[in-house]
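Record pair follows.
FIRST:
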Amino acid sequence: MNLGFKIIGVIFLSLSIVGAAVALITGTKQHDLLSSLVESEKSGDMHNRTNNLRYTTHLIEQAIAGFYEILPREKAQQMALAYFAKINKDKGMIYMVVTDMEGKVLFDPVNPTTVGKSGLHLMSVDNVCYVCGYIKEAKVGGGYTYYKMPKFDGGTPEPKVAYSHYDPVSKMVIVATSYFSDILKASQETRKEVKVKVVKNLGTLIWNIALIVVALIVLTSVFVYFGIIRRLHRLVHRVHEFSLGDRDLTQRIQTSRVNDEISKISGGINHFAESIQELIKEIKDSSKGSRGVAEQLKTGITETLQIMQKRTQMIDAIRKKTNDISVVVNQSTEEAQASQKDLTEVQDLVQTSNDSISNLFGQITEASKTEEELASKVEQLSKNADSVKSILHIINDIADQTNLLALNAAIEAARAGEHGRGFAVVADEVRNLAARTQKSLAEINSTIGVIVQEINDVSSQMNLNSKKIEQLSGVGLEVQKRFEDMSKNLDSTVGRVKKSIGNFVGY
């Protein structure tokens, strides 16, 4: 595609995008402004209507006050309720509801079944106790209650606002209510007219933007064609003549007075043509004296070739000797690698022996701990045996006392004569039992003494074994340390061998 069409196309696309973006942003802003105005108008209407409800309630109170001045209270109340019914029948923006301060519903055309009953339990569709709200606001001098309620019995619930005020003359809570839909309906036509005008103005604005964009595209295209595209065509034509035409380097491209990029390119091409022209002239002048230099260069090259042949022969001799040295080096490397392999195997054996000794040392240590624990338990057993001997001594003392008591009982039985004979038999049996007990205690004491002696012997032997195991453990530690030193020396030796082999091979 021609460069001129590309430039004009880019300009057209850019200005079209700018125009569309401006139109879109303008439409969005006008839509936001319209929405803000509509919401502001709705809010103003709601505020004015709520104030009108309060004002209307006070006017109605003044109107029904005349009934109570000229009529009995009951008749005046009937007239007031009839007046409220007439207001509701007009189906304007205001709907009346009446209760007393105890919450009893006196007038409610939307819910006629609640009339004459307490409305404190009545709830709207949005769970608002609206009668409670009437009473609460009336007690503080008047106020607003918001809830949802149908306009007629069986109708669809709609949001509404109620202003309640206590009338001291009629002793009733007079409530003036109004539905949001009725409040907004009055200004709905105005909002429609505003929307229509905004849409119309937006369409006019978009057309104006489109005309401005088209005019800018036309003006920009004309400027680009005469200021850029036509001059580029001339520059391309001149370069084409330089390359494919008569190749006349004496001709120059005509530059413009405007010092822009195209003029700089034209000047650069002219300067390049001048440089080429001067270079060709210098080449012609220097080619005349280059023949003598060529002869000298030929002689120098011949001498250089002869020297190169001699050096080639020397290099061949050096390469032959290098091959011989390489064979010897390879043999030495193989022997060194075999030695390294043997050292590595010895190192592995030493490491295995070291691990075995470490394992043996662990087992010896564990056996030493077991011997120590067993010696401790044997010593505790010896102490327990000594405790048993103490208990046997106590039992022996009890047997001695029992024998003494039996002797005293026999003496007393002898004194009693014939009457104490049976008691004397019992005393003899008790004395015999004490004697047998002392004999058994002596045998048990002897046996326990033997056991204690054997336990002490075992404990002494186990202590001796524990000391020997500790000595063996020390010897094992020394052996393990020597194996570790041997392993470190082997590691160092293997490392030096590897380093030597690496240096040798690298050499």
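SECOND:
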Amino acid sequence: RTRALLADGGAATVAPAVDDPPWACAMWRAFGRTLRDYPIDSADVEAMLQGLAADLSPQRMASWRELERYCDCVASSVGRVCVSIWGLRPAASLERALALASLRGQAFQLTNILRDFAEDAAAGRRYLPSELFGKHRVSPEDLLRWRDPVRCAALVREAASRARASYEQSRPLDALIDPGCVPTLSAMTAIYRALLQRIVRAPRLVAGPQRARVPTVRKAGIALRAAFAARKARAR
């Protein structure tokens, strides 16, 4: 259905399936309208579909390059679509904004991968690349069991440093986005960076049994600041 809408620029009529939930028709209409109303690159939506399809089977990443391709499908593509919907400030470069959004998506996804390492492993998925485990001379099972704390912590912090670098490199993105949408992006980024900081401070969190998380009070504070900033932007 998604591909049918993509092929016709969102104008196609997608017939509901017998087993669709009640909200499905409205969802597909809204999706089609979004494709019509915003300059979304169909290649980005196709990339999302490829990423979702890849996650239906066990994943084993061999290299950072392979992981970057996966992250582009499941996260960077989302960032580029968001930029297409949010819009830019006058005279901002779309090409630069899309490139920076790709980096921010990489940062978000790598943060997710660290947070979800134990949960993904239980489902047969392992996104941290084999070359990272080889470099630190530990196995995925070693990391899950935290058998060599020094090496395991070094591995986690190296992966975290890559995420941190992508956050820093994508920092100029906020200055390119339409001011009314910046608070949303800023709040998302603040929450994810806070999550990454918790993992860096306590690398063993990636091994479970509970996922690293940002306290609700802190997230609420970030959300309130974002809401205030959004109201201020609308008042200008």
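COMMENT: Residues 1-37 form one domain.
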